[in-house]
Write a structure and sequence with these properties.
The chain has ten helices and eight strands. It has about 300 residues and is an alpha/beta fold. The longest helix is centred in the middle third of the chain and has 28 residues, at about 115-140. This is SDR family oxidoreductase.
C-alpha cells in the first residue's frame, strides 16, 4: 500500500530537479502523475518538451502511471490544459504541486521591467493559472490538496532577488487566503519553502564549480513534500513548511506584543517604546533562520 494509492497528482516544473523528484516519489507511492514542464532555460527562455516525457518514461518503466504535459504554466489556457490532462487521462485530480519557476537575479537597480514581469508571471501568475481550474474541479468533487512553492527569499529576503522574492511572498499570501476559503470545500492548501541543490541553485556563491553534497539532492527533499500532499498531513492547512535534507520545520509570521497605549499617540511615543514595538536583535537572529543559506546573487 502506498501513501497515494488511487490519487492523481499534477506536478508543474517536473522535468528535472525538485519537481522530477516529487513526481517519481508520488508515482512510487501509487499516484498517477501529470508531469508538466515547458522545458525552458533557467531564465524562462526557450522550450523543450522532451524533459517531461523523459521523466514519464522513467516512471512508466518503474511500473508507475504518468503522462507528460508541456504547457506554459503562466497562461490561463496552459493551466486549463494541465488540469485537463489529469482529467482526460486519469479521470480526476487530487493533488496539485506548483513547482515551476525561473530566475532572473539582479540587484533592484538593475532589474528591468522584462525581468520583473517574467519572474512574477511564471511564479505568481503561474500559481494562479494552474490552481484556478484545479480549484474549481476540487470544489465540486469533494476537495483535494494543493502545495504552492514559496521561498526563504520571499519569506526572509535575499540579496539580488527582488522580483523572485516578491513573487514568492505573494504565493505565501495565496496560501493563507486560499486555505481559509478552502475549508468549506475540503481543499487543503500548504506552502513549501524547499532547500536543495538543483540547476536553480547550482551557481550560488559557495556552490559554483563544486560537487553537490549528496544529502542536498532533490530526492532527499521529496519525502517532506510527500508528507504534505498525503493524508498524513490532513489536519494541516494554511501552513508553510521549510523542507530540506536536514528535515522539516514550520515557518510562521509572528508579531511583538507591541506598544498599545489605548489612546491616540505620537511618533515620539512610538520611539520611546521601540523596545516593545521591535523584536530584540538576538530574537530576530534566531527567528529569521533560512532553510537554505541566503547568499548574495550576481548583480
Amino acid at each position: 500500500m502506498g501513501l497515494l494509492d488511487g490519487k492523481v497528482a499534477i506536478v508543474t516544473g517536473a522535468g528535472g530537479g525538485l519537481g522530477e523528484a516529487y513526481a517519481k516519489l508520488f508515482a512510487k507511492e501509487g499516484a498517477a502523475v501529470v508531469v508538466n514542464d515547458l522545458g525552458g532555460a533557467r531564465d524562462g527562455t526557450g522550450a523543450d518538451r522532451s524533459a517531461a516525457q523523459k521523466v514519464v518514461d522513467e516512471i512508466i518503466a518503474a511500473g508507475g502511471r504518468a503522462v507528460a504535459n508541456g504547457d506554459d504554466v503562466s497562461t490561463v489556457q496552459g493551466g486549463e490544459n494541465i488540469c485537463n490532462a489529469a482529467l482526460e487521462n486519469f479521470g480526476r485530480v487530487d493533488i496539485l504541486v506548483c513547482n515551476a519557476g525561473i530566475l532572473r537575479d539582479k540587484t533592484f537597480a538593475n532589474t528591468s521591467e522584462q525581468d520583473w514581469d517574467a519572474v512574477i508571471k511564471v511564479h505568481l501568475k503561474g500559481t494562479y493559472c494552474c490552481a484556478m481550474p484545479v480549484w474549481k474541479w476540487m470544489k465540486d468533487n469533494g476537495g483535494g490538496t494543493m502545495v504552492f512553492t514559496s521561498s526563504t527569499s520571499g519569506l526572509y529576503g535575499n540579496f539580488g532577488q527582488t522580483n523572485y522574492g516578491a513573487a514568492k511572498a505573494g504565493i505565501y499570501g495565496m496560501v493563507r487566503v486560499m486555505s481559509i476559503e478552502g475549508r468549506k470545500y475540503n481543499i487543503r492548501v500548504m506552502g513549501l519553502a524547499p532547500g536543495a541543490y538543483t540547476r536553480m541553485t547550482s551557481d550560488l556563491p559557495g556552490r559554483k564549480d563544486r560537487e553537490p553534497d549528496p544529502m542536498s539532492l532533490p530526492e532527499n527533499v521529496a519525502p517532506g513534500v510527500l508528507y504534505m500532499v498525503s493524508d498524513l498531513a490532513k489536519d494541516h492547512s494554511g501552513k508553510i513548511l521549510g523542507v530540506s535534507s536536514r528535515g522539516v520545520r514550520e515557518i510562521k509570521m509572528v508579531q511583538t506584543a507591541g506598544f498599545d497605549p489605548g489612546r491616540p499617540y505620537t511618533a515620539e511615543e512610538v520611539a520611546k517604546n521601540a523596545d516593545k514595538v521591535f523584536f530584540p536583535t538576538e530574537d530576530r537572529t534566531v527567528t529569521v533562520q533560512p532553510v537554505a543559506p541566503a547568499q548574495p546573487q550576481p548583480a
